[in-house]
Design a protein that fits this description.
423 residues; alpha/beta; Lyase, Ornithine Decarboxylase, Chain A, domain 1; TIM Barrel; 2 domains; nine-stranded mixed beta sheet; eight-stranded parallel beta barrel; 12 helices; 28% helix; globular
């Protein structure tokens, strides 16, 4: 469920007309719904209510400060994968005690910053990283509370580029080595092993891989306890998918049932790291139609948003629902068109032969379900301005990231002395 609905023929974000925001802010622009963010977080948290659970929003999905603060106000922690994301989470009001630092390539500076901030735990993904965390912590006179990320060799049955739990992926430590690694870590100064972590992929629409990964890792967890390691935390990662269009996906309550059935009796803290399931359907990208082009074999709808604004279709073959901002007549004819952007690449395509009602230059369209990995993955390719982000709250809205213009970009560049043009 989300809070983007037609009212009197105009698409609204909560109680604000989308075309009004587009007029005032310009296009393309991202629009987020506070009510949707709040509802999705509460539904997810309710799914694990009664467990000793820490729900940490995956900041990589959407790092906007206003979005993070909205979730922090509801009690969310943060899962971060860089020093920059940690700074964002802290600035948005997430207590360090509710931050989990993940990622395969932490630098010494990032590790030191995490220790100085006092994060809840650092998820360690390799033996060289264990050595580095121990070295940095011991040098600071601190003890890092760590969980080892396990690679359970489970196929998440999702897109190859967002599968993270198979043996050939770069993430985590193979299950067969974990007992040896934990035993060695227990003797190292500077670290304290508090648990195990896993994350098998993103946009999972089948609960079976979750169950398999949880059960395999639980067996390992219990074995480590029998070995004398007093583990107190089990980090299950994230990955629960959302519907893009009409496809059905598991509900958070169904996911929570799997967590309860596989891990509920462990007597430890369960850490969950949802991202897409919280913010995905809470955002739309609004774009203006520039041209309707009749091609030799098909027609094209050329819009002012591009792959630099929303790269998911080009990168993952993602199919986002596209709707007119002005509601079409119920019986309006639909005709197949390719929806494309202005970037000079054929890959700058949002939809191929998508049936849409008649649209003309100047009309507005909305790409749905872009709150996750939309603005977060945007770039300045083709020297295109970065789209602004807008947060709606009931009848109010605010720009929570201004448009980053070409002048803003060039202000950070310089020409070396030998290239300066003589006066």
């Amino acid at each position: 469920m989300d809070h983007f609905r037609y009212r009197a023929g105009r698409l609204h974000a909560e109680d604000v007309a989308v075309d009004r925001i587009a007029r005032e802010v310009g296009t393309p622009c991202y629009i987020y719904s506070t009510a949707t963010l709040e509802r999705h977080f509460r539904v997810f948290a309710d799914a694990v209510a009664g467990l000793d659970a820490l729900v940490c929003f995956a900041v990589k999905a959407n790092g906007n400060l206003a979005v993070i603060r909205t979730l922090a106000s509801l009690g969310a922690g943060a899962d971060v994968v860089s020093g920059g994301e940690m700074r964002r989470a802290l600035a948005a009001g997430v207590p360090a005690s509710r931050i989990v630092f993940s990622g395969v390539g932490k630098t010494r500076a990032e590790i030191a910053a995490a220790l100085k901030a006092g994060v809840h735990q650092i998820n360690v993904e390799s033996e060289p990283e264990l050595d580095r965390v121990a070295e940095v912590a011991a040098g600071m006179g601190r003890t890092a509370e760590i969980a080892f990320r396990v690679n359970p060799d489970v196929d998440a049955r999702t897109h190859a580029k967002i599968t993270t739990g198979k043996r050939e992926n770069k993430f985590g430590i193979e299950m067969g080595r974990i007992r040896q690694v934990v035993s060695g870590a227990a003797r190292k100064p500077g670290v304290k092993v508090v648990g195990l972590a896993l994350h098998i992929g993103s946009q999972l629409v089948d609960l079976a891989p979750f169950r398999e990964a949880f059960e395999k890792t639980r067996t390992l967890f219990e074995g480590l306890r029998r070995d004398g390691h007093p583990l107190t935390r089990f980090d299950v990662g994230g990955g629960l998918g959302i519907p893009y269009g009409d496809h059905e996906t598991p509900l958070p309550a169904e996911y929570g049932k799997v967590v309860r059935e596989t891990l509920g009796g462990l007597g430890c803290q369960i850490i969950l790291e949802p991202g897409r399931v919280i913010v995905g359907n809470a955002g739309i990208l609004v774009s203006e139609v520039l041209y309707v082009k009749e091609g030799a074999t098909r027609n094209f709808l050329i819009v002012d948003a591009a792959m630099n604004d929303l790269i998911r279709p080009a990168l993952y073959d993602a199919a986002h629902t596209i709707v007119p901002v002005n509601e079409p007549a119920e019986l309006a004819p639909r005709a197949p068109v390719d929806v494309v952007g202005p970037i000079c690449e054929t890959g700058d395509t949002f939809a191929v032969q998508r049936p849409l009602p008649p649209l003309a230059a100047g009309d507005l369209v909305a790409f749905r379900s872009v709150g996750a990995y939309g603005a977060a993955m945007s770039s300045m390719y083709n020297a295109r301005a970065l789209a602004p982000e807008v947060l709606v709250h009931g009848r109010e809205f605010a720009v929570v990231r201004e448009r980053i213009t070409v002048d803003d970009m060039m202000s950070r560049e310089t020409v070396p002395p030998w290239l300066e043009v003589p006066a």
